[in-house]
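Supplementary Note 3. Input sequence used for the single-chain structure prediction.
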Amino acid sequence: MGDFYQNGIITTLHNLANRSLQDLERELMEFSQERPMGLILPSLYSELEGDALPAILDELAPAQYLSEIVIGLDRADEQQYRSALSFFSRLPQRHRVLWNDGPRLRALDQQLRDQDLAPREMGKGRNVWYCMGYVLASGRTESVALHDCDIVTYKRSMLARLIYPVAHPRFNYEFCKGYYARVADGKINGRVSRLLVTPLLRALKKVLGEMEYIEYMDSFRYPLAGEFSFRRDVLNDIRIPSDWGLEIGVLSEMYRNFANNRLCQADIADVYDHKHQDLSAENDQGGLSKMSIDIAKALFRKLATRGITFNSETFRSLKATYYRIALDFVETYHNDAVMNGLTLDIHNEEQAVELFAENIMKAGEAFLARPMERPFIPSWSRVISAKPDVLTQLRDAVEEDHEEFSRSGGSYAAAN
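The predicted structure, written as discrete structure tokens, is reproduced below.
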């Protein structure tokens, strides 16, 4: 249970009373009459074969306030897409599965690519972007939540608390970021957020001086959380990265597009755990190593757009400052773990800090070497301006896939 303290410049909505799920959902049902609600689930096909996603669907099924669930399916062939249609058929809500690797969506992607409007690389960012486009095309929801499909501790109350701030008709929030304690199995998790993002933001303050953008980013208790919610109008103008910088990119776009009083963060869970990435110390193209480089580059790009000039000396100073701050954090987290009866391996923590320090330099070098790199996917408003019928094409492609492959799926087509 959190306290009422407000830190930073973003409103924090705490869990002060452990309000019952029944009360929350009763209100959400009332809100849905004025603000229909939806959910985006970006998924790899492999997640359908794991333990987390089936349990998530069991939890979601009773969420009657949801008008639509949009599933983005990556890395699936035709047989796997058919299997996915059957897998998600247990959901009683209207739902659609975007077969991102199917011929119809591939053809649309090629049309956009020909006009330099398509996502430049595969990944979660691309998946989320197309799901956002379908939400705009469908027009069935006003408030939309998004969360990952690998949450092994998922409870429906997470979704209720996540979407509540943007669904309440008398709240003025356009965006809500979820947060939670990354504690599971007697350990403190969330290494990239704890040991990279927070100390890197503090180091940027020391090297660059006080900046509202850095203060804004440092206001989020768990900036890398994959759970957030927004009003539908947010989707038109947001530009998101296609790499591991997605969460940082979304927060940065909300800072660019909206006043701080239209944004909030909410405590959505007491316990949270999901699939863990390897540190990948020997391979900076995978695991937490690649993630740390992409995240650092995302921050550097955003600061550059705010007039900050970087050079090699800046990054060397930043690395040294980060390293000292991060090592101090290791001691802080260790003491916190001990007091709470948890375990934390100081050696492994310091190894991660050493890797992240090196990757800050790699991110800086990559930024200086490719200053004109465009990792952001164009906003949907730009795409619509260049190709006015794109949302109709997207909706039709999804619906045609659904109709064609549902016909052989028995009760699935009849139920949807």
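The chain is about 50% helix and 10% strand. The first helix runs from residue 21 to 32.
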